Amino acid sequence: MTGGSRTPRSAGSCLCGAVRFELTAPLRPAVACHCAQCRKTSGHHAVFTAVPLEALVLTEQQGLRWFRSSEQAERGFCGACGSNLFWKRDGSGRLSVAAGNLEQPTGTRLAGHIFTAYKGDYYGLEDGLPSFPEDDGGKLDGDSGTRQA
Q1: In a domain, 32, yes or no
Q2: Domain extent for 103
Q3: Number of structural domains, the chain?
Q4: Which of 3, 16, 41, 71 is buried most deeply by CB count within 10 Å?
Q5: Are strands 73-78 and 64-68 parallel, antiparallel or unpaired?
Q6: What is the pLDDT of residues 86-111, one digit of tens each?
Q7: Is 13 contained in some domain?
């Protein structure tokens, strides 16, 4: 996940710059996840795009920390400023990237909402996009199988 000479398609960073990265593959449409973990790590729901794991090129990783958030996944964040950066399911070969950390223009759009059964009670979902009470089974991005974030 470090180095490489592939041409970046997207770039991003944490708030303080202790983690900077480039993505060398096209971004999946963005998906808003309303699960309790995403709400607790972001303070609201979290919006992620995704790329193949090998498309991540870390250009600065001094602050990168990983937290095992469940038996099957871990979350990457900046240990200095706390920015929520990545979500990775074990063995999936894909990396979810928090869309808010990408430099604009991102070239992606919000495709829908997942885990809406767990959304906060203080907001509604009135954007008309597809919503799923649990995982969407890849319907929002064309993948098969389950994913979170």
Answers
A1: yes
A2: 27-50+63-118
A3: 1
A4: 41
A5: antiparallel
A6: 999 999 999 999 999 999 999 999 99
A7: no
